[in-house]
Amino acid sequence: MAIRNLLNRSFVAGARFMSSWFRNIEPAPKDPILGVAEAFLADQSPYKVNVGVKCAYHNDKGKPVVLECVREAERRIAGNQFMEYLPIGGSIHMIEESLKLAYGDDSEFIKDKRIAAVQALSGTGACRLFAAFQQRFHPKTQIYMPVLTWANHHNIWRDAGVPIKTFRYYHPESKGLDFPGLMVDIKNAPDGSFFLLHACAHNPTGVDPSEEQWREISSQFKAKGHFPLFDMAYQGFASGDPERDAKAIRIFLNDSHLIGVAQSYAKNMGLYGQRVGCLSLLCENEKQAVAVKSQLQLIARPMYSNPPLHGALVISTVLGDPELKKLWLKEVKVMADRIIGMRTALRENLENLGSPLPWNHITNQIGMFCYSGMTPEQVDRLTNEFHIYMTRSGRISMAGLNTSNVGYVANAINEVTKSA
Questions:
Q1: Which one of 150, 157, 214, 328 is the catalytic residue?
Q2: Is 267 a catalytic residue?
Q3: Can you give the residue range of the structural domain that contains 184?
Q4: Which of 118, 151, 239, 296 lies 20 to 30 Å from 361, alpha-carbon distance?
Q5: Which residue is catalytic, options 178, 185, 208, 231?
Q6: Average pLDDT of 117-128?
């Protein structure tokens, strides 16, 4: 009996101890974008419009799209591949096609085997791998990020233990680029700093430097010895031309920089759920590239061990077949043109309504998102009075607009801003 009582007391004490393990954990702050989504779903109005959280492309009827080139690629690969693990570095064929897309089909750097590249879990995973790589081999070097940038960039480098600094980028008054401030901050950063740059279709502002401005940025980077990591989530999806969207990268390559590129196929192939991307680092020579790739694989091993197979097969099939690639180029241009067309329609509707405000920034910006310049209070009115949902920053997801609702949205925007 005494032994039983002792065991019971020990069990109770152990249970109490175990119950305290997670007692002090508070719920994580709710993501503001998810809050917008929840409010939109709960709204029963037939006029409701969601231009806040549609990060996935939708057609003019508001429906998700599967590209025909992707459908054909899936038809070809169905049942033809074993479901074995990919190497830690990922699909060699997918990586080869990704490098040609980013660096150019005839890139001397590919021929000279100077690029260390691994398949990544989309663009987010590519950035996370680089952040861990930076922390491991340059632990005292901070990363400079533009103001503004994709919110998750801060999470990625913070969780990797990399100090974060910022440089001026978006100019709220002009709703364009703060180029003078940007150049001053690049110049004043310590020599040899790491910088995160958006290759095209800057998220969340849609504001990109001009080709001439990119050349000046590259020149200043050269003078200071800075290292650029290009996050390229929208190649082809921004302008409809993958070559044009890679112009910033090509400028830096022509100026003999060593660079990093984080690629994603979520937007430009509609492979959101497949989580396929590529991280590549241009090195001084082949020997260095071999060493860098081995270290990237070493970092990836405890994170996720091996990247997924199916999406990599789709990408290598589409980009590796001339006819399918031609079809992809046609389809990605259709997507980009629809987004550009919605920008034009929104601006024209606002101007035709006699809005006293300038709206040229809508068409000057590019890509999925438009930084409208509306205040949080104006956004609240849009939601409360017109059932239009977006984040309080005033960022509009252009994929949420279509020919059926753009007039309604324009009228609502005009109503809440005309007294500004």
A1: 150
A2: yes
A3: 86-320
A4: 151
A5: 231
A6: 97
